[in-house]
Amino acid sequence: MAKERKRLNLDLTPEAYDLLKKLSEESGKNMADVLRTGLALYGIAQEEGAKGRDLAVIDENEKVVKQIVVP
Q1: Can you give the pLDDT at residue 1?
Q2: 0.90 exceeded by the pTM?
Q3: Does some domain include residue 7?
Q4: 49 and 70 in contact (C-beta within 8 Å)?
């Protein structure tokens, strides 16, 4: 059985649109897929934040390059 989809209209600032377009082009994914991936990552960050944890980008030396905190 196919999952039911919901359609969403979205207003973005020109800067947000440009970033979405750039991420789409660089990844080879369409804009909707980029937004879905971002939403999934936000969900993970929020779940972990509720547990008192943060998400982070770690470099090859296991040093935190960027910490991702969801208010």
Answers
A1: 66
A2: no
A3: no
A4: yes
